[in-house]
From TrEMBL:
This is Biotin--[acetyl-CoA-carboxylase] ligase. Coiled coil: none annotated. Pfam families: BPL_LplA_LipB (PF03099). Keywords: Ligase. GO terms for molecular function: biotin--[biotin carboxyl-carrier protein] ligase activity. It comes from the Bacteria. GO terms for cellular component: cytoplasm. It comes from Mycetocola reblochoni.
Length: 300
């Protein structure tokens, strides 16, 4: 039988949604091998109650790669199937960059989201609404933490990056996305891979169980995705645009946007209807960018 779950080959105008290739590795059904150990799901009772199916490997290369391998072997995996781990060997972000943290100092979570009813032009809102879900979940476990969004796919606390999001589309019927989320939990200042990293621990928040945080993320994400689907992907009608605007720290700042073939300097003015960042470019017309490395420079 032909495997209908293939990587997407079409270009999308959304923010950080990108096509995904099946990751290397081996799974039991086809002779490939999954992550070395799968923990008992009782380690995550709250998350198990929310996820349609939960896989909790002890150590993975990447939770998104682990979920993609399982999806290749079982294209019928339901919406909400989730992989969660606190030890990732090959975590990655946009443009193939690595996402690293010492074992036990971060939470990695990847979940399957049905986006078959969403117009392709609106899929750029998925990483943004996922960022809102993470910010809300952080507020649930650490009230007053004040998480903000950095367009297109980062979550900041006190200016430091506490979480990153990577959305990868998987062709099939229905069209689905793997939403990968990494949150720094117990990382100390000395353990930061870069000076701009943040964590719950660096904000004085210790002892939040991974299960509590993962379940909060899934609950918040499920509610926002549900509203988005009910509105046919309309970011305004679903209320997503207003939530993103209220949390997006990028808006109103002087920014540098690094594109594959150019660099723009200007002011981040707004997020347009497709989730693109509109920049008032210095000495030029406004320009909407769908994917770029954004550096916050200073407030106006």
């Amino acid at each position: 039988m032909e495997n209908r779950d293939k990587p997407i080959r079409v270009a999308l105008s959304g923010c950080s949604c990108r096509s995904a290739r099946p990751p290397p590795g081996r799974s039991g059904v086809t002779g490939r091998r999954y992550a070395d150990r799968v923990s008992i799901r009782s380690d995550y009772p709250l998350t198990t109650a929310i996820a349609s199916r939960l896989f909790a490997p002890g150590v993975v290369d990447s939770t998104s790669d682990e979920l993609a391998r399982r999806l290749v072997d079982d294209p019928a995996l339901p919406d909400g199937t989730t992989v969660v781990s606190a030890a990732q060997r090959g975590g990655r972000g946009r443009l193939g960059r690595s996402w690293s943290a010492p074992d036990g100092t971060m939470l990695a979570l990847s979940t399957l989201v049905d986006v078959g009813s969403i117009p392709a032009s609106l899929l750029g809102w998925l990483p943004l609404l996922s960022g809102v879900a993470v910010a809300d979940a952080l507020e649930d476990v650490a009230p007053g933490i004040g998480a903000r969004l950095k367009w297109p796919n980062d979550v900041l606390v006190s200016g430091g990056k506490i979480a990153g999001i990577l959305c990868e589309l998987r062709e099939g019927s229905p069209l689905r996305a793997i939403v990968g989320i990494g949150i720094n939990t117990g990382m100390t200042e000395d353990q930061r891979p870069v000076s701009t990293a943040g964590s719950l621990a660096m904000e004085g928040v210790d002892g939040v169980p991974d299960d509590r945080l993962a379940s909060a993320v899934l609950a918040r994400l499920g509610a926002l995705v549900g509203d988005w689907r009910d509105a046919g992907g309309d970011p305004v009608g679903s209320g997503i645009a207003a939530r993103v605007d209220s949390l997006c720290q990028t808006l109103g700042l002087r920014v540098r946007a690094e594109l594959p073939s150019a660099e723009l300097m200007g002011t981040a003015l707004r997020i347009d209807g497709e989730g693109r960042l509109v920049i008032g470019v210095d000495g030029a017309a406004e320009q909407a960018v769908s994917a770029a490395d954004i550096t916050h420079l200073r407030a106006l």
